[in-house]
Amino acid sequence: MTETDHYALVPVTAERKGNATLANLITAALKRETTDADLRQLPNFEHDYLGALAHYLHFPIKTLPVTGPLRTPVNARYGQLEKGKIIIVDVQSILGPQLIPKIARSPLIASSSGLGELMCKTRNSKTTDYIFVNLVNVTADLGVGALQALGAQLTDSAKKPVHGGGKLAKINHVSDHDLSSWQSLNFHLYFDLSDLGPLFGQSGVVFRYQDDIGAGPEISQFLEGQVKQFDHLLQQLGFPKYCDDRFAAVGTGLGYCFRTFFKQVNFTEQTAAFLQQTKQTKAIQKIPYYFVHAANRNYRHFLNRLHKRVIVLSESELTELKNNEVNLVGFPSSTNDLNEWTHFRKMIERTLRLLYFRD
Known about the structure:
alpha/beta, six-stranded mixed sheet, five-stranded parallel sheet, 13 helices
């Protein structure tokens, strides 16, 4: 052990109570073993990236009314940095499942137009970058609605705009000419590792997100066909081929959309992006030991790349661990179960006792 041992706790839930309880248990257990150790709590952005970033960078979260997936108004959340030079968009607030009861989701007609509307409303003469976070999207139109709101023409044989994932195959005319004013901007999509995948197949846009978008087996098969025909049309028209790109499925096809129609598009894993934006990367590199919940795959992946030692907290035994990880089993399933917390406190104490080679 070093002269002063630094530990960090990655928040395990969106509830402050559970995180505070866990931090207190670990701190108390450390004090029993050594006086030369401290615990730092890292930011929790898993459930609200924009909110966490606003807290650390001290900017207000703003809202604007835009069109939701089923044409009803929703309040889009966004933030601005450097007087509007950088716009940070909470995609989930515009296209997320919380907007529509599961029984009412309609993947054949749901549109992403609200995303494009917000971009038009928030852009000013200084804007150079758009950052898209919380990429949760219940539409299956591959961003066509957003593109149309930005000026692109995607029409059927009657030259009428096509709306919804269920009509992608009806598109026979595509013009991105009116997107030219957007080509000088940089677009950044902050993704979750579980978002990565191609456009088609079981790990693609439709089948991976069929529960979120509200599609049963038959509708999923139909939508898959619509997506394939639309992609085939774009390739016939000379657009770049991105259907097999690992970022295609990001944001339920928004990754495919931006890669295909815009020139300056960047993808960054959200943990690395957050730590970089909040200037915490150097501090993270100085901390050797981490407590991370098993479900937080993004942080675990990031810390594995840095070769940090990680104590993975889980409710049950894990079968897959990286070389830098050890498993601490027994994490409470409820923040209110005192018996589970008492048992877990003992597990933490035993683990730290082993680390410090004490009886």
